[in-house]
From TrEMBL:
Spans annotated as N-acetyltransferase: 252-459
EC number(s) recorded for this UniProt protein: 2.7.7.23, 2.3.1.157
Cell compartment(s), UniProt: Cytoplasm
Residue span, Nucleotidyl transferase domain: 6-207
Spans annotated as Linker: 231-251
Top-level division of the source organism's lineage: Bacteria
BP terms from Gene Ontology: cell morphogenesis; cell wall organization; lipid A biosynthetic process; peptidoglycan biosynthetic process; regulation of cell shape; UDP-N-acetylglucosamine biosynthetic process
Residue span of region Pyrophosphorylase: 1-230
GO CC list: cytoplasm; membrane
Protein name, UniProt field: Bifunctional protein GlmU
Cofactor stoichiometry and binding remark: Binds 1 Mg(2+) ion per subunit.
Length: 459
């Protein structure tokens, strides 16, 4: 098999976004555009993937990490100049190079594979991925000769009126014979309206050398959407959302209102899960069968077990077991772990805490930096006092303990197995197993006090 390489163009600033965030880092369904592109490319069998970075180089590298190699384009002199920055790494290699823009987030690995297959089948030296656009404004247009063969690509700003009427556009995605690409790039000039070195000019140069040039027209225009401004960004978001949501519905997930349901590209969801509107599932979240999510719940990088319900709540970076009930209005903060059959009810905040199976904090509590055993009942208004102003401390509540309402557990502290803490206690010493701890002032009743008060007022 021929060797395959890929170059991702991601050095531009994205002036038209009018943003301090570099264009290719703008998220679509929660994932930066350039990450979408690289993830799709990585479904192909590639020897090398190189991203050309410039504006925001560090941030782009931080995002992609080891998914890519990098070359720097110091000055943004055009897409042709950008590819040329990979010359040192690629120029002497035999094989096929795919070039993709970092601002086409909807492009799929399947379409890239079809493009490569077409390129190979045609024995072409360059193949352009094209699409038919209802409104081609802003894209490069594909100029075909009398015999239907691709001759060249003309940019919007350089196109004559006649050329502007052409609806077949350059998606900015190509396959090239690698050696020929880098030879031809050296002959690209910047003699055009924008004064830039255009990558698409390679097509005309190779054509002039008598090489076979081909085009593969994808039927899915939406895949080729190039995001140059925030209007296009919102279109990309909508299309991506629709693609993701339809796939989940086909796989057996009920989305009560798909228009109002936001699921990231790396989320996995089991069968017969029901998701109510206003829910946002982000990052590497997994939801197991028969769970019920929403309305209005946000779950980020978390695992949710089967038959669990999460209503009007937020959970991040946590592991939640099966048959757990969360909410309404609960907050599960990072590094929490809830066992099976746990209940975290309204206005309960859990942070960096573990709950064993069957434990409950049903109302109005803060449980942070805590290890809670199984079968524990945490009464309404319980607070783990975890912070002394400098350090955080651990509260341990062992199996089957019962914490009465409105208790403060001043950490570090342990409530032993099966122990009781009386309501209203402020606990700052360990409670032994099976003990009852009462830590509040005694009640005194002053008999007849009310009438005494009233008679004083009269005088
Ligand atoms: C480009 C194509 C156009 C095509 C469209 C598809 C050129 C000259 N034009 O136009 O034919 O229809 O994409 O979306 O290629 N970049 C660099 N360095 C540079 C310039 C750009 O890395 O010096 C990167 C940008 O970050 C971006 C990508 O290349 O990710 C495309 O650049 P952009 O300016 O968006 O090109 P378009 O005008 O959209
Ligand atoms: Ca673009």
């Amino acid at each position: 098999m021929t060797n395959r390489y890929a170059v991702v163009l991601a050095a531009g600033q994205g002036t038209r976004m009018k943003s301090k965030l570099y264009k290719v880092l703008h998220p679509v369904c929660g994932k930066p555009m350039v990450q979408h592109v690289v993830d799709q490319l990585n479904t192909l069998d590639l020897q090398e993937l190189i991203t050309v970075v410039g504006f925001g180089a560090e941030k782009v590298q931080e995002q992609l990490g080891e998914d890519s190699h990098y070359v720097i384009q110091e000055e943004q002199l055009g897409t042709g100049h950008a590819v040329l920055q990979a010359d040192d790494i690629l120029a002497d290699k035999e094989g096929t190079t795919v070039v993709v823009c970092g601002d086409t987030p909807l492009l799929t690995g399947e379409t890239l594979q079809k493009l490569l297959d077409h390129h190979d089948a045609q024995g072409a030296k360059a193949t352009v991925l094209t699409a038919h656009a209802e409104d081609p404004h802003g894209y490069g247009r594909v100029i075909r000769g009398g015999n239907g063969q691709v001759e060249r690509i003309v940019e919007q700003k350089d196109a004559s009126e006649e050329e502007q009427a052409i609806q077949e556009i350059n998606t900015g995605t190509y396959c090239f014979d690698n050696a020929m690409l880098f030879d031809a790039l050296k002959n690209v000039s910047n003699d055009n309206v924008q004064g830039e070195y255009y990558l698409p000019d390679v097509v005309e140069i190779l054509k002039g050398q008598g090489e076979t040039i081909s085009a593969y027209q994808t039927p899915e225009f939406s895949e080729s959407l190039g995001v140059n401004d925030r209007v296009a960004l919102s279109k990309a978001e909508k299309l991506m959302k629709q693609r993701i949501n339809e796939q989940h519905m086909r796989n057996g997930v009920t989305l009560v209102d798909p228009e109002q349901t936001y699921i990231g590209p790396d989320v996995t969801i089991g069968r017969d899960v029901v998701i109510y509107p206003g829910s946002v599932l982000e990052g590497k979240t997994t939801i197991e069968d028969d769970a019920l999510i929403g309305p209005h719940s946000t779950i980020t990088n978390s695992h949710v077990g089967s038959e669990t319900t999460i209503k009007q709540s937020v959970a991040a970076d946590s592991k939640i077991g099966s048959r757990v009930q969360i909410g309404p209005f609960a907050h599960i903060r990072p590094q929490s772990s809830l066992g099976d059959d746990v209940k975290v009810g309204n206005f309960v905040e859990v942070k960096k805490a573990s709950f064993g199976d069957g434990s409950k904090a049903s109302h109005l509590s803060y449980i942070g930096d805590a290890e809670v055993g199984s079968g524990v009942n945490i009464g309404c208004g319980t607070i783990t006092v975890n912070y002394d102003g400098e350090n955080k401390h651990l509260t341990t509540i062992e199996d089957d303990a019962f914490i009465g309402c409105n208790s403060n557990l001043i950490a570090p502290v342990t409530v032993g197995k099966g122990a009781y803490v009386a309501a209203g206690s402020t606990i700052n010493q360990d409670v032994p197993s099976e003990a009852l701890s009462i830590a509040r002032s005694r009640q005194t009743n002053k008999e007849g006090y009310a009438s005494k008060m009233k008679s004083i007022k009269k005088d």
